[in-house]
Amino acid sequence: MKKLMNKAQDFARETIEGIILAHPESLKMVNDNFRCIVRADERKANKVAIATGGGSGHLPTFLGYVGYGLADGVTVGNVFASPSAECMYEVDKAINNGAGVLHLYGRYGGDIMNFGMAEEFASLDGIEVEEVLVTDDVASAPKGEEDKRRGVAGLFYAYKIAGAAAEKMYSLKEVKEVAQKAVNNTRTMGVALSSCTVPEAGKPTFTIDDDEMEIGMGIHGEPGIERTKLKTSDEVVEQMLNRIIEDLPYESGDEVSILVNGLGATPLEELYIAYRKASKILEEKNIKIYRNYIGEFATSMEMAGLSITLLKLDSELKELLDFEAYSPFFQQNRK
Amino acid sequence: MKKLMNKAQDFARETIEGIILAHPESLKMVNDNFRCIVRADERKANKVAIATGGGSGHLPTFLGYVGYGLADGVTVGNVFASPSAECMYEVDKAINNGAGVLHLYGRYGGDIMNFGMAEEFASLDGIEVEEVLVTDDVASAPKGEEDKRRGVAGLFYAYKIAGAAAEKMYSLKEVKEVAQKAVNNTRTMGVALSSCTVPEAGKPTFTIDDDEMEIGMGIHGEPGIERTKLKTSDEVVEQMLNRIIEDLPYESGDEVSILVNGLGATPLEELYIAYRKASKILEEKNIKIYRNYIGEFATSMEMAGLSITLLKLDSELKELLDFEAYSPFFQQNRK
Predict the structure, then answer these.
(1) ipTM score here?
(2) Which PANTHER family does this one have (chains A, B) (predicted)?
């Protein structure tokens, strides 16, 4: 394991301490607990609050999307491990502006259980809580079982859309509905070229030969749909994008946003080579790219590989996607 | 070699094509040549133009810093290879607003020779050209020979300062002077944990054992000052930062900007763990962090490791550092 770290058990805490030291104007801890992070800027009365959370190791997911026009608070677990329900509850209490809280997170067993318990705790305090699970990973369950899929880079779109809706003072029911619409319109496929190493495990999560890749692998190394010899970028992008397009399906005349996301070790150059092919395929199919995002949005530590995400847009989603948003890790249209 | 690419010889071209497809409102080619990229937004008459350039494989350096409040044009070489003088000359002609051009780039042999030839070509056309070489890499030559050092992540500060000065309508002489002041006040040290692979070479640039690291390694794999067993992050940061601080030296009472830069494969989490220690060391030494930057600013493809850069500030440099700047790869204070 080659990491620039101190003790493995301190990895998540020291990461968060560094983030808070770097960005005190934007982020702060609740009760001095590094697992409970909320926005430090001014709060808006009666704005719906958005809570997220999950394991560490995916920056800028999840904590990086706590900011204006995004989420209001996050609960931070150890690397690839769900945080506790108690911390989620503390975040809910800290961010509630009187209009309720939306739990918005990726569909993973531990997180579902813990956010469910946190919802019960919060309800006892009279805080209204709704939840939307992000389920964009096409490879994780077959068509027809979309609600059994995992959440991956499509989380970004869910934060962006729901966060904008909340800033525009949508009600909790309305924020939930538009977040669910965004999830319903989002599909992602990933490809991994190398493993990552969880600090406390100390060895790679999986092994993969020097000439192999795995299409559809999850962001914690969950098995994909095909392990194959390394193909060209164009071939990989075509295979992934076609699978995405067929799944929703995205159709001629549709407008989409595309996210080409690096999993950690993949150079930005390779993401743009992938974008080049993806944009050509979409043009051929008469699917119009309304807005693109290219970079690292949801990572798996030092895993090499990338994912492609499409979000099908309508006029409401376009307006929310275009809305101002900023955090220490993401900026768009900041005024 | 595990890369998501097509033919190795197409790597740089396909990268740039992807970038231009993704960001046509910001960047465009000169004469349909992917090696000559300039700003696509509105030009300001009599604004000093800033040209940079160098090999591919370092994104967001160099091309990522072509934008408002940054550089105006870039010449793009193959991976880790200098672009040609002819292309540099084409960029100079394309970006000159009548107030002359500053060649601002890292001190590497091929680039020095080619920018020198381009300067001669441009001068024959009556374009006034000045140059500033970025020489921030402390490990690349001893103290007393600062002008023999290589340019690494400190390039970012040179673009940020010179670009702001140009937007504020400083003269060519003034832009050159303040860019040189920024370079004189900037020091960087890096550490590498793994090699990168140049696509056309097809094998790692250097070998390093699984339990080793190399302090002071350059961004093309140039030898560093110490190869050692892997140390803790805190130890590495302390060693690098002390070397930087002693070199200028940075002193009690100074105000600085700090840049913690990932070399490619290093997770953002590890950059923040490094920032945590760096900020504590600076606080102990009564050196105040005025503004921090943490992320990937100058990479070496998929190399694992990071660098730390300090820029000593005065009131002029603070004003220029705070100035609005944006490109598809960097945004600060965008209005």
Answers:
(1) 0.98
(2) TRIOKINASE/FMN CYCLASE, TRIOKINASE_FMN CYCLASE
